[in-house]
Task: structure prediction
Amino acid sequence: MKDLARCPFCGFEDGEVGYLPGGGGYYYVHCNCCECRGPTCPTQDRAVNAWNKLNEELMAYIDRLEDKTAYDDESLEKLFGRPIFLRSV
Result:
């Protein structure tokens, strides 16, 4: 099993894998500090991968915010389309 990344929400490093019995059982990663919980998955490895991916995506987004590139025109256009006043008639 891979090492757990720190919590994407509070940065705490003491997460653990939990198990939900019932309905076939699912695993998830739980932060012992802020009590957030990652996605439920059918295996421990998939739960850890989902938690680590969540951490990577959030850290990349924070880096873009810090670089002030998260809201550049190209990114906004991809999300919301071309602004009405710039569309050709």
Q: What stands out?
A: The helical segments are 44-66, 73-80. The chain has a mean pLDDT of 79. Residues 64 and 72 are 10 Å apart (CA to CA). The longest strand covers residues 15-20.
